[in-house]
Amino acid sequence: MNDSVMFQGLARAFSANTPSMAWPIALWKNCFFDCPLAVSSHVQQFVGRQMQEQVQLLADLSREQNPSAALSREAAFLQQSALAWNNELLEVAELVRGRLLTATQADAAPEAQPPYARAA
Predict the structure, then answer these.
(1) Highest taxon of the source (predicted)?
(2) How does pLDDT run across 30-59, given as a tens digit for each residue?
(3) Number of other CB atoms surrounding residue 67 within 10 Å
(4) CB 11, CB 1: distance < 8 Å
């Protein structure tokens, strides 16, 4: 191998860790199709669970005799729901970050290869 720094950089650039040549298309697909679809699916599942819990709580509250206890249970549910939304937004952000970074990664995990070193 040539001792020139430029050629060593090119050798590293075209190693197995380099993304495929179609990565701009993969990035576009991830940004405008895969990522929004995954986010909407994740949020829909969360909203469905939250709605189911709210309906269950309302059914339980309809049998409640004490109005102040019903209000305190509803307030506790709203507080729990706000915390759940906070966690959901963090999960969505992690999902988006992971989806966007996959487009810039190599297609397959490369096998262990020795790093390019200067020829002796």
Answers:
(1) Bacteria
(2) 788 888 999 999 999 999 999 999 999 999
(3) 9
(4) yes
